[in-house]
Structure formats: C-alpha cells, structure tokens
Fold this sequence. Notes:
Distance between the termini: 33 Å
Number of domains: 1
Shape: globular
Structural class: mainly alpha
Order of helices and strands: HHHHHHHHHHHH
CATH architecture: Orthogonal Bundle
Strand content: under 5%
Number of helices: 12
Helix content: over 70%
Oligomer: single chain
Radius of gyration: 16 Å
CATH class: Mainly Alpha
CATH superfamily: Ypt/Rab-GAP domain of gyp1p, domain 3
Largest sheet: none
Amino acid sequence: MNYYAGALLLNCKNVEAFQIMSYLLTVPIINACFNVDMRRLAIYSQIFDDLLGLQSAKLQKHLQSCGYQYVTYIFDVVAGLFCLNFPYNSAVKVWDYILESPELGIFRVGVAVFRSLESEIMEKSAEDIMMLVKSPCEHVDVEVILKNIAKMEIPAKTYDKIKEKRMAEADINRRAQ
C-alpha cells in the first residue's frame, strides 16, 4: 500500500492522491489483497482462469496441467499494479486501463501478460512460469504487452457473468461447510 501512496504522491497533488487511493481501496480485488482474504483471492483466481480460457484455451489447459496457482500471481499483480514490472511510461498506460475499470482492467492486463508470454509459458513448469510472469518485460517487449492489452476483448457483461457465477459457487460451497 505504501508503494501505491508513494507513486500517487509523486504524480498527483496531495488531495488527488488521497482521492485515488481511497477509490482504489474500495475496489474488491484490491481490498481482498490488502486484507489477505484468501477466500476471495481464490474466487478471483478462478475468474482469472475463466477469462484466460476465453482468450486461449490451450494456455489455460497447460497452466492447469502443470498445477500453476493464480493466487500468488493475483496477489503480486495487485500489490504492485504492474508498476514494478513495467518502465515508467508504460506503467502509466497500464494504470490508465486499470483506473478506467479497476477489476476488469487488472484482469485485462494480467491476461495480456500471459498471452504475450504464451510461447514461453507452454514450455515451462509452474515454478518457472511464476518467475516468468513476475518480470514480463525481461522476456517480451513491453509494446507487445501494451498492444495485447489494447486489443483484449473482455466485455464488461462477460466479466460480470463470470464473476457472478464464481461468487455464487463460492457462496454455495461456504454454506455447505
């Protein structure tokens, strides 16, 4: 959270930084990460898997077969909102996508990173994939990732349906316990 505040204070007036920070903390996926709410993070991991599957079923199957866990990735992504992994000018563009629609923006960027690294991911184990996606700009040109984000087609209605389905499943599972 300190990283968010510092980045905002460097780039905004104090009042604007406070307003943006307050807004970001109300975004459910960000809130789940800062509260280390593993139940909600598991749901967001399932949502990420569903969205990735819409973009590349082959990649999704590979990640599932090698036992890759999205929870760590979701936490890392939200903790740094990609700012630690991208050059400054590119990070600003990524933030534009995220601030436009925070939850969907985070997923769009995350799916675009995986899609941009797909050929390398298909040859790696879960542990190697974890290291690969933590530093995507070391393995693929940042412009490729930005182009993939821009052309990413995840309609808000599709996202809302997937999220609603996964939240309902989690609620049913919680009640059954």
